[in-house]
Amino acid sequence: MHRVLGIIPARYLSSRLPGKPLIDIGGKSMIVRVYDQCLKSNRLTDVWVATDDQRIYDEVSRQGGKALLTQSNLLSGTDRCFDAYRLLTEQGETYDMLVNIQGDEPFINPRQIDLLVSVLAESEQPIATLIKKITDVHDLSNHHVVKVACSIHDTALYFSRQPIPYMQQVPPQDWLVRHAYYKHIGIYAFQSSIIPAIKQLHPTPLEKAESLEQLRWIESGLSIRVAITQFDTLSIDTPDDLETARNMLRMNS
What we know:
This protein is an alpha/beta fold. The protein folds into two domains: 1-108, Spore Coat Polysaccharide Biosynthesis Protein SpsA, Chain A (Alpha-Beta Complex), CATH 3.90.550; 126-183 and 200-231, Spore Coat Polysaccharide Biosynthesis Protein SpsA, Chain A (Alpha-Beta Complex), CATH 3.90.550. It has ten helices and eleven strands. It has helices spanning 30-39, 54-62, 77-90, 110-121, 137-141, 175-178, 195-199, 205-210, 214-219, 239-252; strands at 4-10, 24-25, 28-29, 46-51, 67-69, 97-100, 127-133, 147-150, 156-160, 182-191, 224-228. The strands form two sheets. Strands 1, 4, 5, 6, 7, 8, 9, 10 and 11 form a nine-stranded mixed beta sheet that branches. The termini are far apart.
């Protein structure tokens, strides 16, 4: 059985929701909700929260979870995951894979994590991620919804905030009827052997243009395996997202 490390990167600062990881959702902080969902996965050996903020560290620890204080000058959640991986391996831990789980998705389905790990375990690719079929035409024009074009071998060809492909001579409202479009679900799994190489990569032109770090890996020649999930995720980025999450809890309680 593969040893799989689940890391939830969390930072306190947020332009639209300061202190986002500690926001209360139905009597439990968001970061603890994510952590608890990850514990339900059948494929994760260990789960840790990686943060540079003492308040987040204390909250996770107070609730019985495991947290690591990482460097404060890291530029992305992936960098924070890799720093947490470094800290754990320096303590003698060994893992075959690392899963980067978003810290602002309090209702992530554990089956998504299990699917991702299973796909990477059976793949020759160094990285894997999830995609979901787009069913709402408005998502095609929403630049916050990242789209992905895939090869016939289930690898990612390109990620974009624009709809890809462009359907020539077809009205945009008919695109979903004529072609299967997919959106990216922002969870990644990495073979541990590829982590040192990824850490050496520098920002690339396509990454800078789209502001999508996964394009750095593709531009650098790395292959990303994709798997289709039927489960959607709710990312908490705005006060409206937060209200949606709280309403979901009330409806399901």
